[in-house]
Amino acid sequence: MAVDSAGTGGWHAGEPPDRRARDFAGKRGYFLDHIRARQVTPDDFEQFDLVLAMDRDNLANLQRMCPKKHQSKVRLFLSFASSNDEREVPDPYYGGPQGFEHVLDLVEDACEGLVEHVREQLKHRG
Fold this sequence. Notes:
InterPro entries: LMW-PTP, Ptyr_pPase, Ptyr_pPase_sf, Tyr_phospatase_low_mol_wt. The protein contains four helices and two strands; from the N terminus they run ααβαβα. By secondary structure, the protein is mainly alpha-helical. The model has no long low-confidence stretch (mean pLDDT 95).
């Protein structure tokens, strides 16, 4: 199983995550120093079973980029969350320290649901 991260734009390609994001993630045991930004490529829609967007704007961008045969792979990341009603991951950069903590809470919740979804999919594949 492969997991990757990419943006719909290439503005920060090659750069590491924001220092604040790395610091807050590190406090929870997630080490992001090895990650470098990259832009979504057409191959991503072929290679990955799911292509997840953090917000509706990026979802729309991904849907425009995605070949018709792979449209079902493109979803909102927080559609897998179970502990909150939010459907978009907010930009943490304008919310101070609480913004980063809130985003991590949302991401952890969605990851739990995503792992369960993957388990179910693997059961059905045999």
